[in-house]
Task: inverse folding
């Protein structure tokens, strides 16, 4: 069989154009239908992680239900690190013996400030903004911040 | 009034899927191994058992898992019904894959069959997508984390990845929205699309005058009924009995109820995606999820549109030489893939060695070249030492890709344990 040459006159062109527009319309409506439920989750609300005076330096505290670890450095700076592995979204665990975050799914490892220690993950764990009100550590658990690597400016101090 | 023409409507409709006479060559079992027919049969089994399962299943985070437990423990033959659906679904993935392999190596995708190859690839995609959407429905740990991993893979597609993943999940995590969404895809849209595609697929086979046979001198035509129909019935009965026996003995897996706070160690994608997951352990996700799959898909689509001077339609492996080359290629690809996996696992640490080079290059491009260069060298060797012609080379490339995927799937599923370490 020979390949038929692309022949286009006004009629076929119009026909194809109408099909194309109709398909796009259906696709657009369907995509919007799927998007409908996505919006209403980026709510407000701060998570109260407790009194600053009870949070010791050089320690990592789990807040499993709120999906973050509160990590306090030796100099007192704090990071609220997301438990969601940046590789494929599994929930990381803090390994006390090895002093690092480990992902059970593909063995990515992250340091206490969230930086990649071993692949396959390619970027540091997300962090949540921290603010301190009346000595309380408030974590904004609805607005994760993407970052490629750890920088000292990400730390929050009293 | 012609009553005989209108009696037994169902039987006759089914018989009309076939022509009145068939080529004796076309109905030999080792021409097709009945794979297309088995796939169609499995679709029917899945459709019926799926319809029944719908009566027991509750598509919500609260109800899903319990409804499965109840189905298994309280409903008579409930466990058997679920097993049958589960194993048929898994078998359908295998059978469809073998069918793709069969039509490719028996040179049955060229000329008037080009279009059907494309429809076939699309159906293969829908089969996998159907299986995957069904995977989430039990809402156990296995389902939840497999789908979490898989949907996160999507987010590595450049530019549109994140929004695409959110679109599939209906949010940035796997939630009830995802469950409902997958449920509707699985039990509504996908089967419907499948019915349309199957009709087109069958019709195109009929249009191309049945399954491919080699051009040969003596061509004997036999009556379809009973020569072909009896064979089909026997194969169908064997498949049904085998599936039932298997489902009676081996239960479909069900782990604990899904818990978003704890990832099991290790968490694995469904087995047919384990090749991807294995690939991702070694290579940068941008390559593993996007570059390589796109290249492979484009290649698969393009295969029947290349002009081959030495094509023997219907001849397994095109020629005796092609057969020899395919066997050597399988052996080479198995060894190469295993060597590259072991090298990357134990000896390479490209990120450490080249901290200043972007990871896209160090763990992406360089690793791809590590596989690509020996593969290309092998194709060159085939060309110069075995006088491989164009079709042989295309077959060899196809063989390398398929073999690599199978090896990665086996390594990922069977040889990786805790923390996804080899032999753990």
Result:
């Amino acid at each position: 069989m020979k390949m038929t040459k692309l022949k286009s006159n006004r009629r076929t062109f119009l026909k194809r154009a109408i099909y194309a527009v109709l398909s796009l319309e259906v696709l657009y409506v369907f995509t919007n239908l799927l998007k409908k439920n996505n919006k209403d989750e980026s709510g407000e609300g701060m998570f109260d992680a407790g009194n600053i005076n009870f949070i010791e330096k050089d320690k990592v505290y789990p807040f499993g239900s709120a999906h973050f670890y509160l990590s306090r450095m030796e100099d007192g700076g704090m990071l609220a690190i997301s438990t969601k592995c940046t590789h494929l979204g599994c929930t990381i665990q803090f390994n006390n013996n090895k002093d690092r975050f480990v992902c059970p799914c593909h063995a990515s490892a992250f340091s206490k400030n969230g930086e990649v220690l071993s692949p396959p993950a390619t970027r540091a764990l997300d962090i949540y903004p921290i603010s301190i009100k009346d000595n309380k550590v408030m974590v904004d658990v609805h607005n994760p911040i993407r970052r490629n690597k750890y920088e000292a400016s990400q730390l929050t101090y009293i | 009034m012609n009553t005989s023409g209108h009696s037994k409507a169902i039987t006759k409709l089914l018989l009309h899927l076939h022509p009145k006479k068939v080529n004796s060559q076309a109905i030999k079992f080792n021409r097709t191994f009945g794979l297309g027919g088995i796939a169609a049969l499995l679709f029917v089994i899945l459709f019926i058992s799926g319809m029944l399962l719908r009566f027991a299943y509750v598509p919500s985070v609260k109800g899903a898992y319990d409804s499965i437990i109840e189905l298994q423990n309280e409903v008579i033959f409930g466990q058997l019904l679920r097993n049958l659906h589960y194993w048929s679904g898994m078998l359908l993935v295998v059978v469809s894959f073998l069918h793709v392999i069969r039509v490719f190596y028996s040179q049955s995708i060229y000329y008037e069959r080009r279009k059907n190859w494309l429809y076939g690839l699309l159906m293969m995609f829908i089969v996998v997508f159907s299986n995957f959407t069904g995977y989430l429905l039990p809402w156990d740990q296995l389902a939840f984390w497999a789908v979490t991993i898989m949907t996160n893979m999507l987010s590595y597609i450049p530019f549109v990845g994140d929004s695409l993943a959110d679109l599939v999940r209906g949010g940035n995590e796997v939630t009830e929205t995802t469950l409902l969404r997958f449920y509707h895809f699985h039990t509504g849209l996908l089967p419907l699309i499948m019915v349309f595609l199957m009709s087109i697929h069958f019709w195109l086979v009929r249009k191309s005058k049945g399954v491919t046979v080699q051009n040969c001198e003596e061509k004997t035509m036999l009556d379809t009924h009973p020569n072909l129909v009896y064979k089909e019935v026997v194969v169908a009965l064997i498949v049904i009995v085998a599936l039932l026996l298997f489902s009676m003995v081996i239960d479909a897996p069900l782990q604990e109820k899904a818990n978003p706070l704890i990832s099991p160690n290790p968490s694995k994608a469904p087995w047919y995606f384990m090749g991807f997951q294995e690939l991702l352990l070694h290579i940068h996700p941008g390559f593993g999820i996007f570059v390589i799959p796109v290249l492979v898909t484009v290649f698969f689509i393009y295969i029947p549109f290349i002009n081959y001077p030495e094509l023997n339609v219907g001849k397994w492996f095109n020629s005796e030489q092609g057969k020899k080359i395919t066997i050597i290629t399988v052996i080479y690809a198995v060894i190469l893939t295993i060597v590259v996996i072991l090298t990357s696992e134990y000896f390479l640490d490209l990120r450490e060695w080249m901290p200043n080079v972007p990871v896209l290059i160090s763990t992406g491009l360089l690793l791809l070249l590590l596989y690509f260069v020996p593969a290309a060298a092998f194709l060159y060797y085939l060309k110069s030492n075995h006088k491989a012609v164009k079709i042989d080379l295309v077959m060899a490339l196809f063989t390398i890709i398929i073999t690599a995927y199978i090896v990665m799937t086996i390594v990922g599923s069977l040889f990786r344990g805790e923390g996804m370490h080899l032999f753990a």
Summary: Chain B has a mean pLDDT of 87.
